[in-house]
Design a protein that fits this description.
With 224 residues, the chain is α+β, with helices and mostly antiparallel strands. It has helices spanning 13-23, 32-47, 70-85, 87-95, 147-156, 159-170, 197-223; strands spanning 52-53, 58-59, 97-98, 101-104, 109-111, 114-116, 122-125, 128-130, 135-142, 174-181, 187-193. A 5-stranded mixed β-sheet has the order 3-8-9-10-11, with helices on both faces. A two-stranded antiparallel sheet has the order 1-2. Strands 4-7 form a two-stranded antiparallel ribbon.
Length: 224
Amino acid sequence: MMDPYFSRSEVSHSDLCALEEMLYPRPEFGDKQKAFAFGTLLDAMITEPHKVDYYQLSVEGQYSDYPFTKSDFEVAAAMKRACMKDTFAKMLIENADFQSVSTAYEFPIEYGGFEFQLTAGVRCKWDLLVRLWKMGGDIKSTACETQKQFEEACEHFRYYRSRAWYMDIEGTNKDMIIGISKKNQKVFKVPINRGDKLYNHGKSQYQDIAFKYWLYVDGFKQAA
């Protein structure tokens, strides 16, 4: 069954990514569906374990029909164990609400001195959110084997952009990207604080693509 979140009308970061792929197509390497499915499995093991069926090798949701293998489950389980051995990641996970949805309407976005809003509003869905701490987190499965490689992947896959988008919609001040290696089960952490270099970089990126969304998509939706 498809998560009703994905049929909501507000603009998500995934919508911005889809537009970017149309405007600026980049060569893809590897099996994109396999990577997304495995990431969904890992997220579910950590944040929604009730959705994981270890006997049928399946996970509820978007990839319920995906043919996971026993090896996929073994690797994901090993990654979860590694994550829970990391003191900070364990503390964040134990205090977080999982899969929380944040929305904002009349959400102001500025690009080049021009302020605009997306008609339907904006949304995001958190892996980890601790509202009391004004902090969130995102769990990423990765093929990277070092911290440096993971930080480069964060830039390539626009993770900083997505984290600034999430932070601004919810109004959090701190964020943590938690990468877990499929290769060696190392845990990589990239902290982001409101106003720092990574936050400002990510915000400028979402302002740019959100303006293009407003220009190319939003106006046509209104006309329709």
